[in-house]
């Protein structure tokens, strides 16, 4: 065992024995190095070791703190594992996916607070590009997307060891539009699609609109049920699969590398199109970026979809897809339904990527998100009943919570009357298994204040409502 691992184990022992309780502040790096007579490098490695394993977290400009590990993160899986298709349109209208909450409601929509976005840098880029824009605004955009943006995205992801050619990419108006076009390219109305369960409510809405049936594949903290997914493929129960693999909404988990490899292998083995919705791909808390399942797709059966909506600016409505062997179908469907994407927006994002501002933004954002997530978990652990379960995601923007026997449909209605927006568990499935679960967004700093309200005030009210039930 190395010196830094030995030091890290000392902290772990202190945390387990509660000599260092949750929320305790750890010594600053320089102080730790001096106390232990070690180098700053060794001290930094010890903290990095603890942080990677979830024992501590960094709070920007404040230091390192003991993370909350007291709550279980194992949630119940979908109990109904039959391969009988279900119609999401029979459920979507009744669940109210878009809560009618007005005012400042930071806990509902999965979204970053504006103050966490590089407004100044992005505005500067937009002004610079606009000033020199000429003919690009006075002609229709390329249907595949501007070559400059495709080149910039290819270079950006290549630096993360996920390489593809710009010619393989199609630019769209959002990740959700990429998913829609992908579904229309590989399936038709009344076809059945395999989806994760729980599944992001927006995808269920989309599938309902497109008149697709679904079979839900259970996902737990351990990953996706690969045997059930393979059964769907082998028995030709589905025409395609629509899966999230990294920082999955709402659970927040990332599928193990072995499972991503297995999905790519199954897709090739059964010649089954798999649409990979990877919109949270770049919002990991660790410096090491996980790779998508598309990375292991050598036969082109995975259609990889993502965007900047969760990382940079949802209002710009810009996404992309790597359609693989379905490129021609995807391109033709995109061309016939949208005629391309705003040229000026594409030019601005291309420049923002190439000048390095996007990479710097992500690097600065990750520790902030990690800190916020820990603060939300800590507050909830202290104010919810002991039976409550709180997810412990390593990325993304949301927490998934379960309070056994809690009617979260009734809770959501009561919270809405208080101006609080949450996503009830029933929004994420056509089955009743998640009716005592709910999802909250952690994209706003806990103590952010707007119009006299803040996430922490809304959480306090929400916890009170739960305690009263």
From TrEMBL:
<keyword id="KW-0238">DNA-binding</keyword>
<comment type="similarity">
    <text>In the C-terminal section; belongs to the class-I pyridoxal-phosphate-dependent aminotransferase family.</text>
</comment>
<dbReference type="Pfam" id="PF00392">
    <property type="entry name" value="GntR"/>
</dbReference>
<dbReference type="InterPro" id="IPR036390">
    <property type="entry name" value="WH_DNA-bd_sf"/>
</dbReference>
<dbReference type="Pfam" id="PF00155">
    <property type="entry name" value="Aminotran_1_2"/>
</dbReference>
<keyword id="KW-0804">Transcription</keyword>
<dbReference type="InterPro" id="IPR000524">
    <property type="entry name" value="Tscrpt_reg_HTH_GntR"/>
</dbReference>
<keyword id="KW-0808">Transferase</keyword>
<keyword id="KW-0805">Transcription regulation</keyword>
<dbReference type="InterPro" id="IPR015421">
    <property type="entry name" value="PyrdxlP-dep_Trfase_major"/>
</dbReference>
<keyword id="KW-0663">Pyridoxal phosphate</keyword>
<dbReference type="InterPro" id="IPR015424">
    <property type="entry name" value="PyrdxlP-dep_Trfase"/>
</dbReference>
<dbReference type="InterPro" id="IPR015422">
    <property type="entry name" value="PyrdxlP-dep_Trfase_small"/>
</dbReference>
<keyword id="KW-0032">Aminotransferase</keyword>
<dbReference type="InterPro" id="IPR004839">
    <property type="entry name" value="Aminotransferase_I/II_large"/>
</dbReference>
<dbReference type="InterPro" id="IPR036388">
    <property type="entry name" value="WH-like_DNA-bd_sf"/>
</dbReference>
<feature type="domain" description="HTH gntR-type">
    <location>
        <begin position="1"/>
        <end position="69"/>
    </location>
</feature>
<dbReference type="InterPro" id="IPR051446">
    <property type="entry name" value="HTH_trans_reg/aminotransferase"/>
</dbReference>
<protein>
    <submittedName>
        <fullName>PLP-dependent aminotransferase family protein</fullName>
    </submittedName>
</protein>
<dbReference type="GO" id="GO:0008483">
    <property type="term" value="F:transaminase activity"/>
</dbReference>
């Amino acid at each position: 065992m190395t010196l830094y691992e030995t030091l890290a184990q000392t902290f772990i022992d202190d945390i387990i024995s509660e000599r260092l309780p949750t929320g305790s502040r750890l010594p600053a790096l320089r102080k730790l190095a001096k106390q232990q007579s070690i180098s700053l490098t060794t001290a930094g490695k010890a903290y990095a070791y603890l942080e990677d394993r979830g024992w501590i977290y960094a709070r920007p400009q404040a230091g390192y703190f003991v993370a909350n590990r007291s709550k279980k993160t194992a949630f119940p899986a979908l109990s109904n594992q039959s391969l009988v298709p279900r119609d999401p349109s029979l459920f979507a209208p009744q669940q109210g996916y878009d809560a009618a909450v007005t005012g400042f409601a930071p806990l509902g929509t999965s979204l970053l607070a504006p103050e966490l976005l590089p407004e100044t840098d992005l505005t500067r880029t937009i002004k610079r590009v606009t000033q020199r824009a000429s003919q690009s605004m006075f002609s229709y955009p390329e249907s595949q997307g501007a070559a400059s943006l495709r080149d910039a995205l290819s270079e950006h992801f290549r630096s993360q060891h996920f390489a593809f050619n710009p010619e393989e990419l199609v630019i769209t108006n959002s990740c959700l539009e990429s998913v829609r076009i992908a579904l229309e390219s590989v399936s038709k109305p009344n076809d059945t699609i395999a989806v994760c369960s729980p599944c992001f409510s927006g995808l269920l809405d989309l599938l309902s609109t497109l008149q697709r049936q679904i079979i839900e594949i259970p996902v737990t903290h351990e990953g996706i049920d690969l045997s059930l997914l393979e059964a769907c493929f082998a028995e030709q129960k589905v025409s395609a699969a629509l899966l999230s693999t990294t920082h999955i909404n709402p659970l927040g988990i990332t599928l193990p590398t072995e499972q991503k490899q297995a999905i790519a292998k199954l897709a090739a083995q059964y010649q089954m199109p798999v649409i990979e919705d990877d919109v949270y791909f770049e919002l990991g808390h660790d410096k090491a970026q996980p790779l998508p399942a598309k990375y292991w797709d050598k036969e082109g059966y995975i259609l990889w979809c993502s965007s900047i909506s969760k990382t940079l600016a949802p209002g710009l409505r810009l996404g992309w897809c790597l359609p693989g062997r379905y490129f021609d179908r995807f391109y033709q469907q995109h061309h016939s339904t949208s005629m391309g994407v705003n040229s000026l927006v594409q030019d601005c994002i291309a420049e923002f990527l190439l000048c390095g501002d996007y990479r710097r933004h992500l690097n600065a954002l990750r520790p902030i998100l990690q800190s916020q997530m820990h603060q939300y978990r800590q507050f909830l652990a202290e104010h919810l009943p002991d039976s409550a379960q709180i997810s412990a995601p390593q990325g993304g923007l949301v927490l998934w919570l379960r309070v056994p026997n809690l009617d979260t449909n009734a809770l959501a209605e009561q919270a809405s009357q208080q101006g609080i927006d949450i996503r009830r568990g029933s929004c994420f499935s056509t089955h009743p298994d998640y009716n005592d679960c709910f999802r909250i967004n952690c994209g706003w700093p806990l103590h952010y204040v707007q119009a006299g309200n803040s996430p922490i005030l809304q959480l306090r009210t929400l916890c009170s409502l739960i305690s009263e039930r």
